[in-house]
């Protein structure tokens, strides 16, 4: 009866361990296969590949060990005529016989179960859908460090709609052309147009030799890879934060002016949003929308009025 | 609680049928099969443990595998050159004109990233005055219909291109014109000046061309009567707002008659008891129409006898006026002497009264004109100068066309925006005739019955893809502008006609052509007109016409055509929503419950309770009908309170054989029953009707008793007399309840609230469709509606009550001993019902996962991503307004409507989540609109203006019954309404403090006004 139970539980445990291992492996393989793709999701998968190889070598070593011990046994049997008592028979079995099988099985199962659960929970909470540091390769090797950092171009020159729309928007190619009609870095590429800038020209149909748009050119939009992917169930409006809240772009997007290749700076997880809403205060004095509220707060003698106090952590502010 | 049992939603509730009693206590129609599941589980415990482990192992690995699936790479593709006025994430609004029916309402189209997602009424247009009906709003989905034609077709199904098809058509037209063969352009009522100009050019090229107008629903009785009476073949402008007494003989002017949105706007102006004065509205009709359900005094009347009642009304008024009466052997009188009463009141309100009739008999309409003349209504409530162009159909022209087709004189036909093979009563003759024609062109946007007979199908653009102009009223030009580039390879009819007329390609472009037609007005006027959507010429001063018709001639004709005996009659009527069936492929219209019968999908044989008993019919029985050798088989029966005895009614617009996946073979086509009498189509057919009851049973998807309120005190109503004595009538008992809950602090910002005036609500269903569109509500289909799983966030509860204040019902709990005729005379209250956003919401306290919470602005929030679908909230909601997603309705081919294809999904509002299976949803007070409105104000550094934020329902309401606003603003309209004596909270006694107030319905039923 107990034996039966143990074996069933063992099946269950091994099933779950197996599934977990399969999952990790599948993930590893998938991530590894990603490396061939230029727009990969995870870039630091070298470690995982190594881990996979390690496992492989361990398995091989195990088999080799088994073969060796088997051969040892045969040798022992031939010379002494008796089977060599294994380590298990010699020392492990007497100790094991002192243990209560039920309690042992349950303890092991609990420990393994807890580890699996905690791992899965952590994975679910912090990994699934969280793309922090995601830094895909873009169709044009565009450097924010150069444009926003060195050349000091304002973020909102290109991402102009951040001030008055839900989306900050990737600038349309004609925005690039405002400067790149004239800037093509010929001096650095032996009189040829910079290959990256040429990609813009190819998209809009600009003839750099004659400095004019090619007539009847079939334009092709530039397919930028989207880095910040908020789930559809959360509503986020840039203008609310940029125009009304006067939040700096860098607060959420990090030091973009220092990034050669842009990566996702924040986790974009809900606790990250909520924390800011709890800390950030509303400038009620300088927006006529809050006129009545401002009077009321003044009467109460409050100086700080956070977004949370204004209901900024309520569900339907973002989820509808 | 004194009202207990006074109101009932259907006969099954009034009589407490066992099935109703059984189901009324359950929030959901089917219990979950938990018992069943458990009983199979305890068969063999050992096997179950193994099963459990199997499932456990599988689910863990499945979850792990699913979780490690990497997120797909998403792209953000910007414009190459961003159009200046298009900002991703921000909506754009354009003024245009609705073409879902012939009313020509002005509308505002909301577009996001270049695709229209919502239609609303335009304030600029006097026809719509800021509202749009259910049919009009649903028109947007017709554009995103997957069954639309993607290319021009020839020889039936062969796809071709425009250049090829044009070449063939031009050569055929030329050869027909060269041999003097007649060409006809058959169009539904078209009042576009530019279309007329295009037809003229076409005529110049092909001189044998003539324009024939054909509508599925005829108003020619009015047109011909006005021609006879005043020499003007027009539909007058009816000024319901100036009428203190309105008598309508069956005209459903709030629902379907000519221009319902405009008439509702006007009618409601005199329905506010605040001034101590309300119009008195009499309705004499056979079926219970939407208008009849809103009338003060409604008397069932057999339509075939309408003539004699109209004459009697004339005579009664003539008696009072002291002029000669019309010669009839005997005047007729309706129940309760209402002809006499209404005559007296009409006469007392001389010059401020109005009599209208649905009848399509020119003789009856002539007498109606005579009555209005006698009452001095011309020049005040009836205006023949600023007349309407909303219907121009004259049967004789079309009949001639059909005859010419049969004889082979007509060689070429172009069908524009009409489908006569479906809706013409003698469809066989027409389709036979079409075979004689050398060239038949259809311009239908999707395949229909008529295009089947067309050698060439040149699909028109949808009106949201078109340029256009219309003149729905004399002096009112309403413009159409495209809000999306054509989805398919289609072309506007105007462009087609001009191309075939060999106009230069550049000039044949609809924009260029229409603009050139208005060139004389100047560029500025053109730009302003396109911006506003309308060009208003100054209204003409109203003249009083002289009456030239021979009334005694009309009377003798009416009398001779009266039915000799008391024969039964069949009424063919339009349903609100589906109307004439041209939009039969629109699932939103089918999902909208009919305002009166509350049936979704099908049409049905509507009969009175008495007739049902007489014939031995029960609800959902299936019968075959035949009249005059025309037979319709297998139509389900619906027992309708309020219907006149001896009348049987079936709605038109159903039974389409070619319409696309939704409308195909839905219901039965009754157009073949339409008869021609005195040259006009008549929609009441008297004569021996034979019924044949089949053994079948067909359950109608009727929502009337879903979400029943079990006799609780929801509705309050009073008469104007009571109101004048005490404006707070029925609301006297202000409850002073002690609350167990802590009060919320609403002082920081806004406190949203809504007021619904039961006095104004007509029940037209515009808000339901508006909410459906705005909030991405899925279409669930007939079978799911039967299971009480409709997803509409708001519904309109229609309550019946007996005229005599419910005494019959309160005296006798069970009605089955009472004569069936008690159901003939009923009155109706419509109450829109959606989430009441209670301050102490019962749903919030029972949610185990805090998915529904309270906001500091008084909104009850529903967070779908938290919801785990326990349904506790729905069970605890006393208003029954929460809806559970039983299925994943999007991308699911079992719900084959518009959510399962990419084109249909283009109508989705990007600001609102598309809910998944297993979560609750409900009205959110259009939180996305509130957030957007607040943000705009904050960005513009100003205070919020009252009325700036509108919910989908409040913005669409033609009668202005729904008002939304901030209760914290003491000057807002909502605060004023909340202070009104008529306002009350539904279920006040429960102490849940709803954020919505309803206003007592006041009926003008006192004997004198």
Keywords:
heterodimer; A: mainly alpha; two-stranded antiparallel ribbon; 12 helices; disordered N terminus; B: 1009 residues; alpha/beta; Dimethylsulfoxide Reductase, domain 2; Barwin-like endoglucanases; seven-stranded mixed sheet; 43 strands; 28% helix; 20% strand; globular
Give the topology.
The complex is a heterodimer of chains A (320) and B (1009).
Chain A: H1 2-34, H2 46-80, H3 87-97, H4 101-126, H5 144-150, H6 155-158, H7 173-180, H8 195-204, E1 206-207, E2 212-213, E3 224-225, H9 238-244, H10 249-253, H11 270-279, H12 291-300
Antiparallel strand pairs in A: 1-2
Chain B: H1 11-14, H2 18-24, H3 34-41, H4 45-67, E1 75-76, E2 91-97, E3 106-112, E4 115-121, H5 134-143, E5 153-154, E6 158-159, H6 162-178, E7 182-187, H7 193-205, E8 209-213, H8 220-230, E9 235-238, E10 245-249, H9 260-268, E11 280-285, H10 290-294, E12 297-300, H11 306-321, H12 338-348, E13 353-357, H13 362-374, E14 382-388, H14 395-407, E15 410-416, H15 420-423, H16 427-436, E16 439-442, E17 456-457, E18 468-473, E19 476-480, H17 493-500, H18 505-508, H19 510-517, H20 523-532, E20 534-536, H21 551-560, E21 569-573, H22 587-591, E22 599-600, E23 605-607, H23 609-615, E24 621-627, E25 630-639, E26 647-651, E27 675-677, E28 680-682, E29 684-686, E30 689-697, E31 701-702, E32 717-719, H24 720-725, E33 752-757, H25 766-774, H26 782-786, E34 795-802, H27 807-811, E35 826-833, H28 842-846, E36 852-854, E37 860-862, H29 872-876, E38 883-884, E39 920-921, H30 927-939, H31 952-956, E40 962-966, H32 973-979, E41 983-984, E42 996-999, E43 1001-1003
Parallel strand pairs in B: 7-8, 7-15, 10-11, 10-13, 11-12, 15-16, 16-17, 21-26, 23-25, 32-43, 33-42
Antiparallel strand pairs in B: 2-3, 3-4, 5-6, 5-17, 9-14, 18-19, 19-20, 21-29, 22-31, 23-26, 24-25, 24-30, 27-28, 33-40, 34-35, 36-37, 38-39, 41-42
Helix pairs in contact in B: 5-25, 7-17, 8-13, 11-12, 11-13, 13-21, 14-16
């Amino acid at each position: 009866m107990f034996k039966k139970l143990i074996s069933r539980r063992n099946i269950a445990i091994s099933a779950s361990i197996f599934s977990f291992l399969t999952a990790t492996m599948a993930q590893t393989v998938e991530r590894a296969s990603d490396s061939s793709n230029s727009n990969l999701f995870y870039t630091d998968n070298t470690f995982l590949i190594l881990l996979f190889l390690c496992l492989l070598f361990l398995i091989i070593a195990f088999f080799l060990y088994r073969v060796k011990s088997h051969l040892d046994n045969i040798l022992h049997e031939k010379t002494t005529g008796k089977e060599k008592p294994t380590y298990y028979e010699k020392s492990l079995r007497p100790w094991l016989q002192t243990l209560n099988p039920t309690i042992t099985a349950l303890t092991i199962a609990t420990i393994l179960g807890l580890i699996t659960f905690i791992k899965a929970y952590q994975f679910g909470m912090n990994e699934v859908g969280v793309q922090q540091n995601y830094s895909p390769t873009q169709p044009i090797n565009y450097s924010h460090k150069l444009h926003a950092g060195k050349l000091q171009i304002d973020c909102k020159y290109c991402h102009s709609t951040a001030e008055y729309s839900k989306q900050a928007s990737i600038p349309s190619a004609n925005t690039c052309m405002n400067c790149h009609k004239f800037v093509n870095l010929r001096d650095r590429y032996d009189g040829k147009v910079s290959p990256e800038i040429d990609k813009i020209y190819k998209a809009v149909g600009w003839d750099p030799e004659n400095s004019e748009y090619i007539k009847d050119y079939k334009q092709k939009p530039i397919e930028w890879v989207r880095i910040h992917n908020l789930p559809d169930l959360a509503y986020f409006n840039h203008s609310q934060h940029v125009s009304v809240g006067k939040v700096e772009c860098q607060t959420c997007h990090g030091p973009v002016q220092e990034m050669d290749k842009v990566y996702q700076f924040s986790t974009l997880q809900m606790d990250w949003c909520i924390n800011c809403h709890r800390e950030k205060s509303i400038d009620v004095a300088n927006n006529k929308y809050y006129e009545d509220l401002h009077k009321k707060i003044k009467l109460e003698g409050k100086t700080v009025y956070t977004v949370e106090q204004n209901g900024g952590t309520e569900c339907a502010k973002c989820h509808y | 609680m004194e009202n207990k049992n006074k109101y009932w939603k259907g006969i099954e509730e009034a009589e407490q049928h066992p099935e109703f009693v059984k189901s009324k206590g359950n929030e959901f129609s089917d219990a979950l099969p938990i018992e069943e599941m458990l009983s199979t589980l305890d068969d063999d415990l050992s096997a179950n443990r193994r099963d459990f482990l199997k499932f456990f192992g599988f689910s863990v690995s499945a979850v792990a595998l699913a979780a490690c699936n990497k997120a797909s790479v998403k792209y953000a593709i910007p414009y190459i050159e961003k159009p200046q006025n298009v900002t991703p994430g921000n909506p754009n609004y354009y003024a245009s004109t609705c073409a879902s029916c012939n009313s020509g309402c002005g509308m505002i189209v909301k577009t996001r990233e270049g695709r229209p997602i919502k239609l609303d009424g335009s304030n600029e247009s006097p026809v719509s005055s800021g509202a749009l009906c259910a049919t009009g709003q649903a028109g947007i989905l017709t554009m995103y219909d997957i069954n639309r034609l993607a290319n021009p077709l020839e020889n039936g199904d062969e796809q071709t291109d425009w250049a090829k098809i044009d070449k063939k058509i031009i050569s055929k037209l030329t050869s027909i014109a060269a041999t003097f063969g007649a060409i006809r352009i058959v169009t539904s009522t078209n009042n576009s000046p530019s279309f007329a100009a295009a037809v003229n050019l076409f005529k110049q090229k092909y001189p044998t061309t003539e324009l024939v107008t054909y509508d599925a629903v005829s108003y020619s009785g009015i047109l011909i009567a006005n021609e006879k009476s005043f020499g003007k073949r027009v539909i007058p402008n009816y000024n319901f707002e100036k009428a203190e007494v309105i008598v309508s003989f069956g005209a459903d002017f709030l629902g379907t008659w000519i221009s319902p949105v405009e008439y509702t706007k006007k009618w409601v102006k005199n329905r506010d008891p605040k001034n101590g004065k309300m119009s008195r509205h009499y309705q004499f009709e056979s079926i219970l129409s939407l208008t009849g359900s809103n009338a003060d005094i409604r008397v069932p009347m057999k339509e075939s006898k309408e003539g004699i009642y109209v004459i009697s009304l004339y005579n009664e008024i003539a008696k009072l006026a002291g002029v000669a009466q019309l010669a009839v052997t005997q005047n007729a009188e309706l129940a309760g002497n209402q002809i006499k009463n209404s005559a007296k009141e009409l006469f007392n309100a001389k010059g401020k009264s109005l009599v209208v009739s649905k009848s399509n008999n020119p003789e009856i309409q002539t007498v109606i004109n005579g009555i209005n003349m006698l009452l001095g209504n011309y020049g005040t409530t009836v205006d023949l100068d600023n007349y309407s162009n909303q219907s121009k159909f004259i049967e004789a022209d079309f009949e001639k066309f059909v005859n010419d087709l049969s004889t082979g004189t007509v060689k070429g036909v172009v069908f524009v925006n009409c489908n006569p093979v479906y809706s013409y009563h003698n469809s066989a003759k027409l389709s036979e005739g079409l075979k004689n024609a050398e060239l038949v062109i259809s311009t239908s946007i999707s395949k229909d019955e008529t295009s089947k007979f067309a050698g060439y199908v040149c699909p028109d653009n949808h009106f949201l893809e078109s340029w256009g102009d219309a003149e729905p009223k004399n002096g009112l030009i309403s413009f159409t502008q495209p809000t999306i580039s054509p989805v398919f390879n289609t072309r506007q009819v105007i462009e087609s006609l001009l191309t075939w007329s060999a106009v230069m390609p550049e000039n044949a472009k609809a924009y260029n052509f229409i603009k050139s037609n208005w060139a004389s007005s100047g560029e500025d006027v053109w730009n302003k007109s396109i911006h506003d959507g309308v060009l208003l010429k100054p209204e003409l001063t109203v003249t009083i016409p002289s009456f030239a018709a021979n009334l005694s001639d009309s009377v003798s004709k009416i009398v001779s055509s009266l039915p000799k005996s008391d024969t039964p009659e069949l009424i063919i009527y339009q349903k609100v929503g589906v109307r004439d069936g041209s939009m039969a492929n629109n699932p939103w219209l089918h999902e909208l419950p009919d305002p009166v019968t509350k049936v979704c999908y099908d049409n049905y044989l509507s009969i009175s309770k008495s007739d049902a008993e007489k014939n031995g019919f029960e609800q959902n029985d299936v019968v075959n009908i035949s009249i005059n050798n025309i037979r319709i088989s297998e139509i389900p029966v619906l027992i309708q309170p309020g219907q006149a005895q001896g009348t049987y009614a079936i709605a038109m617009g159903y039974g389409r054989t070619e319409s696309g996946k939704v409308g195909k073979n839905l219901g039965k086509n009754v157009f073949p029953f339409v008869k021609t009498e005195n040259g006009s189509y008549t929609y009441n057919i008297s004569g021996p009707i034979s019924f044949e009851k089949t053994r079948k049973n067909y359950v109608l998807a009727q929502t009337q008793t879903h979400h029943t309120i079990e006799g609780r005190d929801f509705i309050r109503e009073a008469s104007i007399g009571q109101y004048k004595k005490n404006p707070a009538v029925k609301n006297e008992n202000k409850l002073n309840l002690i609350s167990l809950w802590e009060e919320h602090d609403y002082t920081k910002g806004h406190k949203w609230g809504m007021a619904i005036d039961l006095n104004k609500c007509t029940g037209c269903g515009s808000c339901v469709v508006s909410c459906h569109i705005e909030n991405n509500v899925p279409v669930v289909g007939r079978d799911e509606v039967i299971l009480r799983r409709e997803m509409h966030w708001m519904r309109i509860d229609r309550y019946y009550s007996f005229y005599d204040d419910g005494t019959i019902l309160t005296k006798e709990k069970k009605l089955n001993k009472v004569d069936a005729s008690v159901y003939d005379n009923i009155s109706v209250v419509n109450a829109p019902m959606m989430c009441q956003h209670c301050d102490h919401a019962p749903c919030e306290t029972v949610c185990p996962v805090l998915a529904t919470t309270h906001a500091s602005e008084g909104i009850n929030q529903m967070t779908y991503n938290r919801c785990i679908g326990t349904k506790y909230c729905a069970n605890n909601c006393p208003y029954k307004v929460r809806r559970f997603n039983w299925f994943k309705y999007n991308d699911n081919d079992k719900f084959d409507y518009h959510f399962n294809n990419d084109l249909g999904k283009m109508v989705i509002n990007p600001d609102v989540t598309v809910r998944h299976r297993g979560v609750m949803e409900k009205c959110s007070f259009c939180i996305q609109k509130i957030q957007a409105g607040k943000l705009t104000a904050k960005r513009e550094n100003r205070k919020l203006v009252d009325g700036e934020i509108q919910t989908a329902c409040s913005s669409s309401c033609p009668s202005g019954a729904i008002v939304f606003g901030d209760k914290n603003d003491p000057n807002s309209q909502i605060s004023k309404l909340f202070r009104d004596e008529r306002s009350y909270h539904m279920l006040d006694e429960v102490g849940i403090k709803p954020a919505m107030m309803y206003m007592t319905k006041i009926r003008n039923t006192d004997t004198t006004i």
